[in-house]
Structures are given as structure tokens and as C-alpha cells.
Design brief:
This protein is mostly helical and 606 residues long. The protein has helices at residues 6-27, 32-46, 53-60, 62-73, 77-82, 84-108, 114-124, 129-139, 145-171, 180-200, 202-212, 215-235, 240-250, 257-281, 285-290, 292-316, 321-330, 336-347, 354-378, 408-419, 431-439, 452-457, 473-486, 499-508, 516-531, 536-560; strands at 401-404, 424-428, 445-446, 465-468, 491-496, 512-515. It is 65% helix and 4% strand. Strands 3-2-1-4-5-6 form a six-stranded parallel beta sheet, sandwiched between helices.
């Protein structure tokens, strides 16, 4: 038997490190991010188990790309426009002021010359999107006010990497006269192409794939969109994460948003974990040993300077003390784009040496490692009422009612809810029904209601009532079991398939169930009586009596079996003589037969 190759062995080590350290650090209250970093340090610098840590980091950066795509899915273009002041105002001020303060600190510390100090200062001014967003997700604070302000600054920092890379070329000295206009035109053209593709190509693409029912094709299409948009932005000179974010924003209005989020989530989680491990792998212990005094001083200075600047800016722009503290303790670290900037600046040797770049990368890495501890420390600095309300501007993620299945039954029920002024999040697995509903102005999302990840993406954590109006009883039962097991806080209102199904649902403890044919059959019978001359009031009383008897029979049958309550049926058995003598004896219902066991008519597929 041949030995496994190096790539296979290294992959096992990375996955094993994630599996072992994440639960331990989570249990200790330190967060999974710090656990992944510790795993990387042990696997790489300590045990030397990974040969090429840079290659691992390059692949694992896809985790950051997928993270930005999912964030984009949560932000409608209109919502992004509302955040423009925080993005371009607060974000720009943070980069400029933090960059100037850190430039001065780097120059006074004599790390390098004044030109190199500018790159050091502005490189350290960039925070880690991956670390900050992971912490926000773990705490459930992505949609809070301070979470949105934090994200606005991170988004501007991602945009700032482009002019900072150009600044490296300028400060490194004139080597070759270049015209920046073509590069700018290419970047603008790439963004425009992304917007056009997102508006006119992506939704039709997913509609076609959804109609085929090929689950694996949907996943492949989601990966293609994310990685394709990231590659396009990279070719245009922008960051891959920015491309993925833009494609997510373009699909934020799509009916396939929740399904895409559920498909991407597993890849995002695994790759992001490997990214944090790769950061630990890249830590150079020899550089730390050689410069330990400077690093020990530099890391807290970096975090304090950035924290103070961010706190002051947030307070000056309207944030409360608690929110400003949260943001300042969330974003004081260096970021992954600092790796790129410092490596580029040291490549030619004109601004600072490779050893200086390694020391700076070690400072950034250690500041990342301390971020979870700083975020935990921030809770001790809060004052007064620390309760934070969620921002409810995200369509489809916070409705009181989550409806699964938009059949004719669900459509009528939704009309009542909407008329009552209630927001309803609707998911359905039929691409044709989604397209037809959009023609009438309905907003429903494509997704499989039997999948926990889809329900979570559709906002079931915030839903007070889950309405299950699917056609097939097997699917209905699966959804009911899933919701009762994992989301017991949600009340279940369920459309039953037939009488037997109603009894089963009652035995399962659903909050409310109703056969689709019951109310329509009662109304139909009443109108027929009225057409035969019975008064409207009398017909109504008869209908209510039948409804009451039906409910009483259901209660009896749920406890005593289907044979219970036979004497409550109105029946008038007849024995008609056939015009043609049958070839075999027909089955005849007697007074003792229970008609309740007869299956109801198969509902028409909407």
C-alpha cells in the first residue's frame, strides 16, 4: 500500500488541528479564531508539519472571499446606499487618521526611513475583515448598529488597498513613467461589468438551473459566481474579496439569495478556518526572537493607537459610548491586506528590507491573535444598559412569519397576513412558482425548506410563527420534525394533507393544523343549500354544526383511534339498482362503516 502524498497529509493536519482546537478554545471562552491560530502555530513553526505555508494561505484566502460574498447577500443596494456616509466618511477618516498616527510612531521608532514609515503606518491602519466579521458572526452582532459601522470601515479599508499599492510605486522612486488612467478605466469597467451581469444574467442563470432540479449544479453555479467575480476583480487590479462582495450585493434582491447562502456557507466555514490556521503557520518565530523587544512594545502601541482613534471618530460621528468601545476593541489589529502591502514594499528593497517586512507581518499576526481577547475585554468597559437592538432593515431575515411553500393554500394565507400589515418571508422550491409569483409582485425566495441551513438563512431564528403549506405530507412531516427539534421557540401552523394527517400532526403537538379542503367544502355545501331554498342563516348554522362535529370527532379520534365518533356523522345510505348488472359484487358501505378513513382528493399541484 503506497504512502499518502504530502498534500493529503498536510490537509489532514489542517483539518485535524481545526477539529481539536476549535472546541477547546470555544469551551474556554476564547473563541474559535484564537484556537485556529494556536493550531497553526503548533503545526507550522513548532512541529514544522507544513512545508509551504504561503501556498496554504493563498488557497485559504478563498474563505475571506466567500465571507464577503455572504455579507454582500445580506446587503441590498438600497441598504448599501444608506451606509455611504459611514463607508466613505467614517471609513476614510479612520484610515487617514490611523495611518498618520501610526506613520509618526513608526518613524519615531526608527523602524525605517520616512517613506517606508508611510507604508508601515497606512498598512497597519488596515484591520482584518476576516477576524472582525468572524467575531461579529459568533456573537450574532453582524446586523447591530455597531456591527454595521464596523463593517463600513472594513469595506473602505478593502477599497483603500488599491491606492496604497499605487502609493508603494510612487514612494519607491520613479522607475518607469506610467499612465494611471488606463488602470483606473479597467477597474471602473470591471465594476460596471459586475453590476450589469448581476442585474441581467445571474438571476436568469439560477432560474434555468433551478428548473432542472440538479442540486449539484446549483452548488457549482454558486461557486462559479463567487470565484469568477473575485477573479475578474483581481485581474482589474482590485481585491478578490471586493469582487465577491459586489456579486453578493447584486444577488441580494434575488429570490435565490437564501439558497445561495446555504450552499456557500459550508465552504466559507472550512476555508475561513484554514485561513486562520494559515496565519498561524506564517508566524516566523525566529523573527520574533530576534526582535522580541520591539514587537512586544509595538503590538500594544498599535492596538492602543488604533483603538483610541476609532473610539474618538465613532463618538464624534454619533455612536454611543458602548458602541464606540465595541468597535474600538473589534478593529485595533492589523489586517491580511497588510501582508500584501508589506510584501510588495519589500520586494524591490527600496522602502524596507525583507526582514523588516517579516517583523511587520509578525506584529500584524500577533495583533490578530489578541483581537478575540480584546473583544472579550470590551464587555468589561461597557456602561449602563448593554442591550443592543437588531437592525431590521434586512429583507427576508427578520419577519415574524416564515412561510414554507407558496402553494394556492399559502398564497391565500399570505394575502390575509399582508392585509393585516404583517411581513412574511416565503421560501419555495419551485423555480416556476417563484417566477410566476414575481409577475404579480410577490417576493419569495428559492430554497429547500427541509434543510436546516436554508431555514436559518431565511430568518427562522427571528420567526415567531412558521407556516408550513407544502403539498406532500412527507415533506411537511420532515419540516415539522426539524423545526420542533432545532427551533422550539417557533409556533407551527401546518396545512395537513388529509384527516389522518391532521390527527398525526395534533399528536405531534403542532400549534395549529388545517385541512386545505375543510373550509372550502363547508362553504360549498352552505352555498348549495342556499341555492335549494334554505335561508342563509340556517345554512350557516348547519355549517357551523358540521364544523363543530368535525372538531369533536378529531379530538376523539386523536385519543381513541379512527373508529371513534362514528355516530356523529350525518349519513343517509342508499342502495341504487344498477342499469347494467355488474360482473362482480360491489363493495357496499353500511351504517357501521367509517367514512373518515377515506382519503381526500389529491390536491391540484399549483
Amino acid at each position: 500500500m503506497s504512502a499518502p502524498n504530502a498534500l493529503f497529509t498536510e490537509t489532514l493536519m489542517l483539518l485535524g488541528g481545526a477539529v481539536v482546537t476549535a472546541p477547546i478554545f470555544k469551551k474556554l471562552g476564547l473563541g474559535t479564531v484564537l484556537g485556529y491560530l494556536a493550531a497553526g502555530v503548533v503545526i507550522g513553526p513548532v512541529l514544522h508539519g507544513i512545508g509551504d505555508s504561503e501556498a496554504v494561505l493563498a488557497v485559504a484566502e478563498l474563505g475571506v472571499v466567500f465571507l464577503l460574498f455572504i455579507i454582500g447577500l445580506e446587503l441590498k443596494p438600497s441598504r448599501l446606499w444608506q451606509m455611504r456616509r459611514d463607508i466613505f466618511g467614517l471609513g476614510t477618516a479612520q484610515v487617514v487618521l490611523s495611518g498618520l498616527a501610526l506613520t509618526l510612531a513608526a518613524y519615531l521608532a526608527n523602524i525605517t526611513g520616512w517613506r517606508g514609515s508611510i507604508i508601515v503606518g497606512f498598512g497597519l491602519a488596515l484591520s482584518s475583515t476576516a477576524f472582525a466579521m468572524q467575531i461579529l458572526e459568533q456573537e450574532g452582532d453582524v446586523n447591530t448598529k455597531y456591527g454595521q459601522r464596523s463593517f463600513s470601515m472594513l469595506l473602505l479599508q478593502d477599497l483603500a488597498i488599491v491606492p496604497l499599492l499605487a502609493l508603494v510605486t510612487v514612494l519607491d522612486g520613479p522607475k518607469e513613467a506610467t499612465n494611471p488612467i488606463p488602470d483606473l478605466a479597467i477597474a471602473v469597467g470591471a465594476v460596471a461589468a459586475m453590476i450589469i451581469a448581476g442585474r441581467y444574467l445571474l438571476t436568469p442563470l439560477f432560474q434555468v438551473i433551478a428548473r432542472t432540479g440538479a442540486r449539484e449544479a446549483m452548488i457549482a453555479a454558486a461557486l462559479l459566481v463567487v470565484m469568477g467575480s473575485a477573479t475578474l476583480m483581481q485581474l482589474a487590479g482590485l481585491s478578490m474579496a471586493m469582487g465577491a462582495f459586489l456579486s453578493g450585493v447584486m444577488l441580494a434582491e434575488s429570490s435565490y439569495r437564501h439558497e445561495l447562502e446555504a450552499d456557500i456557507e459550508p465552504f466559507r466555514g472550512v476555508l475561513l478556518a484554514i485561513f486562520f490556521i494559515a496565519v498561524g503557520l506564517s508566524l516566523k518565530l525566529d523573527v520574533i526572537v530576534d526582535n522580541w523587544v520591539l514587537i512586544v512594545l509595538a503590538v500594544p502601541v498599535l492596538m492602543v493607537i488604533k483603538g483610541v482613534v476609532i473610539y474618538a471618530l465613532c463618538r464624534a460621528t454619533g455612536s454611543s459610548h458602548n458602541d464606540a468601545i465595541r468597535i474600538a476593541c473589534l478593529l485595533p489589529q492589523g489586517g491580511e491586506f497588510g501582508f500584501v502591502l508589506f510584501s510588495t514594499a519589500s520586494a524591490s528593497g527600496g522602502l524596507f528590507s525583507a526582514s523588516t517586512a517579516s517583523m511587520l507581518i509578525a506584529i500584524v499576526t500577533l495583533s490578530m491573535a489578541l483581537t478575540p481577547l480584546g473583544s472579550a475585554l470590551s464587555k468589561r468597559l461597557l456602561s449602563g444598559d448593554t442591550h443592543e437592538e437588531l437592525d431590521e432593515d434586512f429583507e427576508g431575515a427578520g419577519s415574524d412569519v416564515l412561510m414554507i411553500g407558496f402553494s394556492r393554500f399559502g398564497q391565500i394565507a399570505a394575502q390575509i397576513l399582508l392585509a393585516g400589515g404583517r411581513d412574511v418571508t416565503v421560501i419555495d422550491f419551485s423555480a416556476d412558482r417563484i417566477r410566476q409569483a414575481s409577475n404579480f409582485g410577490f417576493r419569495i425566495y428559492f430554497g429547500d425548506g427541509t434543510r436546516k441551513d436554508v431555514l436559518r438563512s431565511a430568518g427562522i431564528d427571528h420567526a415567531k410563527i412558521v407556516v408550513v403549506s407544502t403539498h406532500h405530507r412527507e415533506i411537511t412531516d420532515k419540516i415539522v420534525e426539524l423545526v420542533q427539534t432545532d427551533y422550539p421557540h417557533a409556533r407551527l401552523f401546518v396545512r395537513s394533507y388529509d384527516r389522518i394527517h391532521s390527527i398525526e400532526l395534533r399528536n405531534k403537538g403542532v400549534d395549529y393544523e388545517l385541512r386545505e379542503t375543510l373550509e372550502s367544502g363547508l362553504l360549498f355545501g352552505r352555498r348549495t343549500l342556499e341555492a335549494l331554498g334554505v335561508s342563509e342563516a340556517e345554512a350557516f348554522e348547519i355549517g357551523e354544526d358540521i364544523r363543530k362535529r368535525d372538531e369533536q370527532r378529531l379530538v376523539l379520534q386523536a385519543s381513541e383511534g379512527l373508529q371513534a365518533g362514528r355516530d356523529m356523522l350525518y349519513s343517509r345510505p342508499v342502495k341504487p339498482e344498477p342499469l347494467v348488472k355488474p360482473k362482480r359484487a360491489a363493495d357496499v358501505f353500511s351504517d357501521d362503516d367509517d367514512l373518515s378513513a377515506l382519503p381526500e382528493e389529491e390536491p391540484e399541484r399549483a
